[in-house]
Amino acid sequence: MLFVSVAMSDRKRKGRDKRFYVQQAKMAKMGRTKLVPGIRGFLLFCNHRERDALREAYGVLNEAAEERFGKEGMEVKEGEEVEVKEEMSGEEDEDIEAAVAREKADLDRVRSRPAEERRFQAVDTGVQNLQFVRTTLSDPVALATDIMEGLRESGQQKTRNLMRLVPVQATCKATTEKLSAAAAEVLPKTFKDYSEKRSSSSTPLTFCVYFKARLSGGGITKEDAVEAVAGAIKTLDPVPQVKYKDPDVTVVVEVMKSNACLAAIPRYTELKKFNTIEIVQHEKEEDSAGKAVKVGKISEENTGNDNNEGKQELAT
Hints:
Layout: H1 2-30, E1 41-46, H2 50-69, H3 96-111, E2 120-127, E3 130-135, H4 140-154, E4 162-168, E5 170-173, H5 176-197, E6 206-214, H6 222-233, E7 241-242, E8 249-256, E9 259-266, H7 278-315
Parallel strand pairs: 6-7, 6-8
Antiparallel strand pairs: 1-3, 1-4, 2-3, 5-9, 8-9
Helix pairs in contact: 2-4, 5-6
């Protein structure tokens, strides 16, 4: 009787082990196509035209990444300079066919990579007008910040359907326990790095929590998210202060169904909440306002000069 019970127990254990490995394989496969815990990347917000928005996102992401790290498959380490070949003219022009062949070979090499090894790869969030692009880059916040600063400096609008490009440092299950663990892993390093970059390091950093839930079924709440973030914030020295208007760092918590996305983003409000359209329009409006003020001052000066000349004529 004892032998039978042991044999049955072994069969149950083997059955559980098999189910475990099948589930792990299923999760790994889903990770290539769906939003799952344990990845980082970028949230893409759009208005209905998701495929066009995704194409635009790939464009700005690849452009910024190639400028910072070089072409995919030929990456350089952070701190190293990216070699930029100067354009040649006349007889020194590169043969067009050879250039096209080399470009095609580069694309084929990137496409041959497994999806999880590609620099950028779209995955499904299950939420309309909200997509996710996973990345192998270690710091999506830095790359997204580069993109926003580039848009602001150039004043050139590069997206029409992509509205916001929000970096994500970690994804986890949408529970207080899992979010607390993700916050403890992500927030201390981000706050420390940004604090060291600030010029006025004598004052403590300020922060706030931005929370949004979509199709979460009433799971994790804003209060739960604030509690999870606060647990990680309290471990910092000095402890950052809460500030709701223009904080130094905004902790973004985006919940979609059963998953949560987390990022600590410096200058979030300054960079227009990473709205790729608004930051360009705002810069153009400021430029127009500045030009109008300048023209007004010139007009006032000219008017004043005319009045002075008239007074001098009357005096004579």
